[in-house]
UniProtKB/TrEMBL annotation, chains A, B, C:
The keyword Transferase applies. It comes from Chondromyces apiculatus DSM 436. NCBIfam families: PRK04523.1. Residues 182-328 form the Aspartate/ornithine carbamoyltransferase Asp/Orn-binding domain. It is found in: Cytoplasm. GO terms for biological process: citrulline biosynthetic process; L-arginine biosynthetic process via ornithine. Pfam families: OTCace (PF00185), OTCace_N (PF02729). This is N-acetylornithine carbamoyltransferase.
Length: 341, 341, 341
């Protein structure tokens, strides 16, 4: 049994295998290869694409998806071990993960950071706890990385560019009125490095550089592929020659929990918005974004409505890659498998 | 590809065709004529019947329905074009409609008015924006009209009355503690006119007359059918001779956003409640209401529990007409059809 | 047609029949014996296990489950008859139950007490109103009893103990920071008595004894089985010799609506928490709990993670017993059956 918590646990070949299956599923019809199986989708945060693509994708494979919202329709959950549970949570992940493992064949979890202390958030405790206690595969629907989005991005780029090695991908920070999760930025960085892109990270100041875990992993994968990771705060240098511009906003790690102090830096960099002038510096570069995206804040209408924009294709590909993923993880597994233990 | 935003876009013959299919579906078994297809149900407002009848009706046709609640489980959405999105909405309908069109074969939307300015609400921007940007059929689950309710009402009246032409239908305003949507009132007016009823609109004062768009359309359809639309504020005149009494409460259009000023007029007309005495003025008239209905506020228990009340039948018929509608709209379409563009 | 509101309406033989079917379903594959049927799941309160096990169990039988949350996604509902509905509720259970009966083949309801006056709560008005007005079977998903949990508990105990007659079951109150529903306590008491256990109820003071209706019923069933019900406030006496320890927290009935007055009593009995020392007083007793459970408040980690703990098995068994129940209630019924009336 294998979880899907981060692509760092998977080789490029393994991920390419998933992308190849996804491409075949996209081209062909729906085979109900997981008939009779089921998946619980746990949302601690809102979702449109993730929910629709998982619920519908599971259905197309013959599965039943159950959507649960802990703290809203379902009971709030505790994740720390050994404590006296006299606060809000009514039950512990030990019970939740084990019980769900009896009902369903997989558990998918969306759990954003708390945004108080990055040192806490970077431990990714919620999904790690599910993985520790579940007896069925656990899938990351976005925590501090967003590996399903990574697969969708790579499928889309392979569709548009063919082989990706040696091409330049710009990962650019953009303004957003609120500090956001670094998950998609972390994910874009490591998946682009893994697939041989020459990655440039463009952000306002050194404080917006991503967590060392992902920077180091990307550097290591880039070197293995004969490429490199470049960090820049120079907009023109970032865009020049890019084959792909991938935009995302995120909060600077040193300011977690002290957002009032970050606000002036953030506000001073509204001009990082992706626009036509910047895109013209690229080599006819493609534009994408994970969605949701705020128009004329992160990216102009002009870019989003141009033929270079492939964000709708990337969103569509979520369903295809996730179907390939569920098939890979669940072909052999079954709910209640731990009963005999 | 065709949307279903208002019955004003459909001829009487087309609508009768849907009603005939619905009647056959009601009589017979569930044929899975839309196997493998899917629909997204977007609820910006609460629902009991609409949600149950669409989700179950889709399932009976072999489809998968995905329920989304923007602003609750899903991200809040922007509908105005060209603006700088630095407010609450995290994404634009341009992205939402296009992405959903890749996943599902139809998009159904419930979006009530904002109740601040009728001049804004009457533009029906939310569903019009979905229709403009979706590449699959869009279905109105109640905005400023409620066309699915219209079909259910007509199927029920045809079941009970046979041919409807020339019969008198009273559409009566009733008291409700809050100002409500005019959607069902608009809808009852235009569908009754289209199907040849002689329609009387009974309301407290001229300020409760419905929007000119619907009054004019009804008048035109009535004339084409050799009938007429009568507006009255005289309760006895309204009920006398009616074959059908259809009750609904709504807020007066001139008072949108200034509800404190409307309140005294509303409160002074609590006696518009439908009761046995009023029903006795009709020609053995049937009673119906779209639901939800407040007992002993809009209608007495006595009327709702009488054999003349057909509101439960009308509610049941929602599922049959919506199945006929989905079949008509989707028999040829398919998700992702815009991919080649 | 038969409802499933409380196990008091069913004989031991009837319930054993359900358990036998459930055990066969657990051992075997999923037969779609209710293909084409449907069930509405109405949640007035949160749920994890109940929702997952009903929604998935229905699916495994070939049914479609529709999840509704009145007051959240669906309209708030009135349950009192004859009143003027000018408060919050937008519709009456008379309409809701009758309309849903047209759409679906069964209605399941979770409706916790209001916790203001036990004299009101004990009438179980919400589910009784659904049962009175629905024309399809109504299933209790926890109101003031939790009969589905009873079946799951008994299936689990029969799996572990074989024949249960004459064995000692301790039902122990535990501390919880909030006063909770007595439903599961009532249920454990009556189902254990029905299946021939010698039941001991351990609680802090006489004020925590359960409602006379359930105490009397348990006493009567115990006598019929040659057993007895013992109430004690002595922890050691309670645990000694128990074959099963079933833990639950609940609010004392005399303090409903005056919880500040109960708080000191509650706080003074934190030591009722189930721990290893207490479990060692039993005859190698099993431990269970209905979940959700607060670790180190109601029960220690040590007990919950020990081989004696069977709460995960009990949770799993929810799906099996509920499938057996739905099959028993729905094998012959069908939605819209009241149409001809």
């Amino acid at each position: 049994m294998r979880h899907f918590l981060t692509t760092l646990d998977y080789s490029r070949d393994e991920l390419q295998g998933l992308l190849d299956v996804a491409a075949r599923m996209k081209a062909g019809r729906h085979d109900k290869t997981l008939e009779g199986k089921s998946i619980a989708l746990l949302f601690f945060n809102p979702s449109l694409r993730t929910r629709t693509s998982f619920e519908l994708g599971a259905h197309q494979l013959g599965m039943k998806a159950i959507v649960l919202e802990p703290g809203k329709g379902a009971w709030p959950i505790e994740f720390e071990d050994g404590g006296v549970m006299d606060g809000e949570p009514e039950e512990h992940v030990r019970e939740v993960a084990r019980v769900l493992s009896r009902y369903v064949d997989a558990i998918a979890v969306r759990a954003f950071p708390k945004f108080q202390r990055w040192e806490d958030d970077r431990e990714d405790k919620v999904i790690r706890a599910f993985a520790a206690h579940a007896t069925v595969p656990v899938i990351n629907m976005e925590t501090i990385t967003h590996p399903c989005q990574e697969l969708a991005l790579m499928l889309t780029l392979q569709e548009k560019l063919g082989r990706t090695d040696g091409k330049k991908l710009l990962l650019t920070w953009t303004y957003h009125p609120k500090p956001l999760n670094t998950a998609v930025a972390n994910s874009a960085l490591i998946i682009a490095a893994k697939f041989g892109f020459e990655v440039t990270l463009l952000c306002p100041t050194p404080e917006y550089v991503l967590d060392r875990r992902y920077m180091d992993a990307a550097e290591e994968m880039a070197q293995a592929a004969g490429q490199r990771i470049t960090v820049t705060h120079d907009v023109e240098a970032g865009y020049r020659g890019a084959a792909v511009v991938y935009a995302k906003s995120w909060g600077a790690l040193p300011y977690f929990g002290r957002w009032a102090e970050e606000k002036p830096i953030r506000e001073a960099h509204r001009h990082f918005m992706v626009d036509r002038q910047k895109m013209e510096l690229t080599s006819g570069g493609l534009f994408s974004h994970c969605l949701p995206v705020r128009r004329n804040v992160k990216v102009t209408d002009e870019v989003l409505d141009s033929p270079q924009a492939i964000h709708i294709d990337e969103a569509e590909n979520r369903i295809h890659v996730q179907k390939a993923l569920m098939e890979a993880l669940l072909a052999g597994a079954s709910a209640g498998a731990d009963r005999a233990k």
